[in-house]
Design goal:
The protein is an all-alpha fold. The protein folds into two domains: about 70 residues, no CATH class; about 80 residues. It contains six helices and no strands. Helix 1 runs antiparallel to helix 2 and helix 4 packs antiparallel against helix 5. The longest helix has about 40 residues.
Length: about 150
């Protein structure tokens, strides 16, 4: 298990290095092609090579590198819960604006409900922080086994 985790770390480091090299290298290669074509090629073939150079620069700018090289995030549950929390922040602001601009009791209730959801979200963040999806799945499996044993 430890050897597998070590191999996974080495693979992640290699993927990270490849991604960095592509992010830096693609625009440099694209610029090099454009400059070379402008200086050394004949007029009829210039346009195709210039387009290729611009395409390489744009690929890196649009971050298509991230689509080619897989995401290296390990703590996806925490990321998901953080995204949910940020959406609650937006909802809370909307509810607060409504609540302060009008005197409708439902808006106060909505505001309070969103605050309660935010507190629950923070607790979920604390639960999933530092745990990969594999860790959480393992933990859930152990809970199911323990529950089954208690039922017997």
């Amino acid at each position: 298990m430890a050897e597998q985790k070590e191999a996974s770390k080495k693979t992640s480091a290699l993927v990270r290095q490849i991604r960095r090299a592509m992010v830096v290298g693609l625009p440099l290669i694209g610029i090099q092609i454009i400059i070379s074509v402008m200086l050394f090629s004949q007029a009829h073939s210039r346009m195709a090579f210039i387009m290729l150079g611009f395409l390489l620069v744009e690929v890196s700018v649009l971050m298509l590198v991230n689509k080619v090289v897989p995401n290296e995030r390990r703590y996806l549950a925490l990321r998901s819960e953080t995204d949910h929390f940020l959406s609650l922040v937006r909802d809370l602001n909307t509810a607060a604006i409504r609540m302060y601009r009008t005197d409708i009791p439902d808006y106060r209730k909505e505001f309070d409900n969103i605050q309660a959801s935010m507190i629950r979200s923070v607790h979920r963040m604390g639960h999933v922080a530092g745990r990969t999806d594999e860790d959480l799945a393992e933990e859930e499996q152990e809970e199911h086994v323990q529950t089954a044993q208690n039922d017997v």
